[in-house]
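Handout, section B. The chain below has 113 residues.
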Amino acid sequence: MIEPASLGNFFTIFFTSAMVIMLGALYALLFAFSRLKGDARLMPLAYLSYAGLLISTLFLADAANLLKHPFWTVIVAFMLVGYLLAPHAIWHLCVGTHADEHAEVQPVPLKDF
């Protein structure tokens, strides 16, 4: 059984939870813009956001006493690996799904009126 987080860790849990949400969204946003715009300069910023997400998640897991139990440590690790790889998988899925749409569409010539 997990021992509950102490009241002294409430601010840490609150702040790191917010950071996990914000940095996760920033990572996904920068990753998507880097791929959509073809701007390679945004990808290091995306990975920097992920590093902040990783650090915030570890602080959150420690404050919530999750790292004291191997089961929850594995769950936290799977979550971090999954969130690192998910944008890559989603990008490849979207590109593969929409590749046929661009190949099938033929431009329609405009007629003079």
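Note. Residues 70 and 76 are 10 Å apart (CA to CA). Compare this with the example in section A.
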